[in-house]
Amino acid sequence: MAAKQYFDNTQANEAISKFKLLSAYGGPGSIVHTAYGSIIVSCIEEWGFLKKILDIQKDAVDTGVKEKNIKDYVVKQAKLERNGNIGISNDARLLESLINRKGLTELKYLVLIPDIAVQDFSNKIKNSGNELAINSSFMPKVFFDKSKHYKFYKEWYNEWCKNKKNDDKYGAKFFPPKYNTENSISNLTQDNIVLICDHGHISDFPWSKFLRWRNDSPMEINSEKPIELFKSQPCCGTEDSSTSIIKITSSTANASGFDGKWLKCESCGKQTSLKGLMSVKIKCPGHKPWEAITSNNGELKYHSGNSNSRSKMPPLENCSSTKAMKVALTTGNNLYYSRMLSSIYMPDELFLDDNTLKLNTLKKEFELAMDNENLDEAMRLKSIMTSLIEESQNNSLVQEIQDSEKDIRYRFEEYKALALKDEDEINVDKVEHLKVKDVTANISGSNLEKYFSRILRIDNMKITSAQLDFSRVVPVDSDADNISSKNIFSSKPDSVQVYPVVENYGEGIFFSFNEELINEFSNSKGIESLNENLYELNQKSDTFSEGAIKYGLENNWQLYLVHTFAHLIMRELEFKCGYPTASLSERIYVSNDEKYKMYGCMIYTAEGAEGSMGGLIAQTRPDNIKNLILSAMKRSTICNSDPLCWESDGQGLFELNFASCFSCSLVSETSCEHRNIYLDRRILVDENNGFFKELIK
């Protein structure tokens, strides 16, 4: 195979944290603001380090590595410096979950985003790491010059390359986007308007087509029905050969925003006011610019990359949304919502059943027998394996499991291991990716003892996060109607073999509540008002709040109890060990389903957070853990907004918080799993009916 050629890239690189790249607000399809303009991150098929893993796997096959050894070969080769020192996650539980949830039947590797260094001054990627980089393209692709003439990136690019004064036939000097004036060269300015759809699509605003439509049908702007603007012709010329010269000017009148701007074409003289632009209703054409091909498998002979990434017509699909697209600014917070799946690493012994563990052992013995050409032993093992597989299939019901139950079952695996397994059983990982210490005895003999069945000090834990998909306009896991998410890959699910993830390490405290005491509390008067409020909210719910209220009803007061406790502990840790709540995270384990019944929470911090490692677990020492819980509960009896907060019948998002507000219970948005809702101090510390009423007397 010929050696891949990479252009001498001296400018078009931007260093972005891997934790930002795969996060609640970043990932494939997201818009990232750089020093050179706004870019849209390409789908994972365009990520260089993932292609590298596939190349290594292909080399393994071509060189005759045995099939059973290919994965080990890839893991070892990927870590070599010449291959970029790429890590492969060993979180088998997360791998299996992605296979089941996204239908990725051929998924083999969870690949860690490598550290790719960019030089400060030259902006070159260090150590020839171009082939590992993550590709992107400009979004929006509309730019304008100092005279406010608007053109697509491709048009500006072609003008630049054809201008003989530039002596730049292939656009090597075009970046950052620029144009020729009479006597000099000036940089172009990127437009900041896009159209977004609740099915995940995003489009450049079609200024020329908009101008023609406003002049031909001036009254349609008041129509409630979305206009199929993208199917119309531009102001002048045709779709393939537009002669429009679009310009946006500002009036001298004292008008703000788009109310004082005018759109006109210097070719035909048509013009229209941009007043009301943000409320225009346009039907979605199904554009997916993040799926544009940005490279030719590394054969980048020219600085400009693949011409597909410059095209005015990005990859598209039929959009089934009945709603109009939203006009949005590229700095808007509704452009991208990522849905993440985070996993705490657990050795197989902690979550696999006995049959599966036995089957895995037999598979290894079978492979060894085949290698030694011991056919009799291989046939015997094969027979046992077949019986075990049939037994497992007979014991499990073949049925479609919804994502919500998959989430609960995934959490229950963690809860069951942490709450029910012995300390020695949990600490089986030789590398110590999970190491815990049972500190329940530290509250023994105190008035806290009856409330908790277990408290664990988590000295070391590995958290692996993967992005499931993303949405625009509203979060995919919100409760709005007709929301559709988009995958971070463009190919068919059954052809995806590699998937990007990020890993970090941390420490934490795990609390498991006494289930008997929880059951007894169900007869308490303390939950009556909460239930009444939830049922009343359910009666008034709309399509947007219905799902959140339904979730609150399903998990009931138990969710409020555990979730509020977690928030109060996080806030108290700010005082006890100096961690701001933004550096802490919660993991809530609540389910009233008999199959997955659990009541617990974990508070943890990860590397890179403010505060040093060891500060959190130090709070599990005998005196510290008692003081932490007692102080948190007592502090929560007072709020600066009382009595309004304490007596509230509904506040916060969807009015699903009761005696909880920013002054007493809410934490950083990034720290909370439930959007800072399902909180109520009264259920914990009401002096007559609270769960912890005896602690505060």
Automatic annotation (TrEMBL):
<protein>
    <recommendedName>
        <fullName>DUF1998 domain-containing protein</fullName>
    </recommendedName>
</protein>
<dbReference type="InterPro" id="IPR047721">
    <property type="entry name" value="DrmB"/>
</dbReference>
